[in-house]
Task: inverse folding
């Protein structure tokens, strides 16, 4: 895998390193059948040149990670997220330094993010469900496409019309005035018996 780290909003050449093994772990309420499925990526790096402190925030700027699968061409992005500073550590064993770094997919950051514009003004008026999902996901700062999929393999298709029309059905945004972006995403997903998660470089909303 090819890993790239950069400060959020940075343009230029990213710090790159290749690793053989990474671990993607469930995080949060992933035991529930529906709702938001948060994930964390655990990376272990063996290096005499790097330290865990090299991946800490600087001037309150978040450090973003992009992970690419290079096992076969073309190279494919499979994860994008942020370094979690409190979960980093250096370990020494037999004179070898191993850096362990945790990354969040960004969804858990939405737990403290209000559903509001850049000025802090709460949204109002009617908006499509897909656009509401998009507004919430934009708050992660991770720019990925959103794919809405109806799983035809499931026995029940009672919600097929609802899921297929997420781009046209509208909700009054005032109902979300007291909710965080995470709560909104989770409510929409659970109400529609669906899952929302990041995979293969995309956000997925699957019923």
Result:
């Amino acid at each position: 895998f090819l890993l790239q780290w950069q400060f959020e909003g940075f343009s230029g050449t990213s710090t790159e390193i290749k690793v053989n093994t990474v671990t993607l772990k469930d995080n949060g309420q992933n035991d529930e059948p529906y709702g938001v499925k948060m994930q964390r990526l655990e990376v272990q790096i063996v290096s005499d040149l790097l330290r865990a402190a090299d991946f800490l925030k600087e001037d309150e700027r978040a450090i973003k990670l992009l992970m690419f699968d290079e096992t076969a061409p073309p190279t494919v992005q499979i994860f994008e997220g942020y370094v979690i500073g409190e979960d980093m550590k250096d370990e020494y064993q037999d004179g070898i330094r191993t850096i362990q770094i945790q990354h969040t997919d960004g969804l858990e950051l939405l737990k403290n993010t209000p559903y509001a514009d850049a000025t802090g003004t709460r949204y109002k008026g009617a908006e499509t469900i897909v656009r509401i999902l998009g507004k919430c996901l934009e708050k992660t700062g991770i720019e990925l496409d959103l794919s809405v999929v109806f799983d035809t393999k499931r026995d029940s298709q009672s919600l097929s019309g609802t899921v297929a029309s997420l781009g046209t059905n509208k909700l009054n945004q005032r109902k979300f005035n007291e909710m965080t972006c995470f709560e909104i995403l989770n409510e929409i997903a659970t109400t529609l018996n669906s899952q929302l998660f990041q995979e293969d470089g995309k956000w997925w909303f699957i019923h």
Notes: The radius of gyration is 19 Å. Helices lie at 129-138, 160-164, 181-191.
